[in-house]
Automatic annotation (TrEMBL):
The keyword Disulfide bond applies. Disulfide bonds join C158-C233. Residues 437-459 have a biased composition (Polar residues). It comes from the Eukaryota. The gene is TACR3. This is Neuromedin-K receptor.
Amino acid sequence: MGSLPAAANWTGRASTAGADPGNLSAALAAGAAPGATEAEWLHLLVQAGNLSASSSALGLPAASPAPSQPRANLTNQFVQPSWRIALWSLAYGVVVAVAVFGNLIVIWIILAHKRMRTVTNYFLVNLAFSDASMAAFNTLVNFIYALHSEWYFGANYCRFQNFFPITAVFASIYSMTAIAVDRYMAIIDPLKPRLSATATKIVIGSIWILAFLLAFPQCLYSKIKVMPGRTLCYVQWPEGPKQHFTYHIIVIVLVYCFPLLVMGVTYTIVGITLWGGEIPGDTCDKYHEQLKAKRKVVKMMIIVVVTFAICWLPYHIYFILTAIYQQLNRWKYIQQVYLASFWLAMSSTMYNPIIYCCLNKRFRAGFKRAFRWCPFIEVSSYDELELKTTRFHPTRQSSLYTVTRMESVTVVFEPSDPDNSKASRKKRATPRDPSFSGCSRRNSKSASTTSSFINSPYTSVEEYS
């Protein structure tokens, strides 16, 4: 991300790994002949793709003349055999293909079908867009930079490459956080109005604005340095590596630790509420239908969040350890460790469409429609019906009388009664929704007292299934 090593090292730290900056600088400034000192310096530039250290941190003053000729006799300990490069290329190519096409299909499923346009799904659109964008614009470029230790893409793309990944990951994780908070409000306090379409757009816009602000320093301080035989893209902070490390820690807290903490708390409370207890005795079929639907949505989102957390954890650990123990950057297999941790982090962008397809019947129907041209994909009439306009329309309560949710008892005051201050007549109304026929009368009291947990005037089962 950001300036991930090879192209995106958030910290942009110095990678001297025990070398003496003063000696390196003096040797290079004196135009030293090719030897151990310069060879070590060039090795340090390519170790694990960690190329974002500033020239001063590497011991190369801005005015120091570089060697006049490329050193062809220098060896690179991170050059990989062709078979390994082919395997890594295949692994990264699969991530990009699945992430881009899978998330674009998710966006199409939601925006092209009215039934899918819910608050949760609008946040899923934002999540899918940020994942697809990062996979398309960041993953392969970083992989190429990590593999070749050479920046081929120019100064403008260097700035974009250091800026956009942090923006996209911030948008992704806070879209998940917004979904968690929305689920919490819908289940724990269902009588409050849900977010409107306008409010949802404002929240999404605010997420992107904050993401831009967090990533802006990466764009501001991005540099490229053209050297004999090599071009580097890195982030040169005014106060050096310590400022880089501080920024790195801030980013980890804001795009990993804090949102995961919020989601952990909200989903724990929601999980206890949904799975922690049942209403004693018989309850209506509609109650069980909505409870089951809510559980499915929450379970799907918990899997999405856990997948994100697992995929990004090794990546963050890698940078923290290599920043503290810089000698690790010279380890023989450090490039393989980086490529593996970076692949796992980037693979988080491709799992969500698979999770949606496996755990949600409407997304599954949408994927079937998208791939109906395949000979082994069959779209049934039930799949077509799943994406049609909402079939369930909650009946509005009349303003002339009040109906309790579960018992459906109407209290009617007769103005013509001579003693209407003391007497009133209760009439049992016929349920207006057929699903109420499954309710037990003997448990109507308990069902009624808990009905606000399941139903609210602002939601229906369509919102959750």
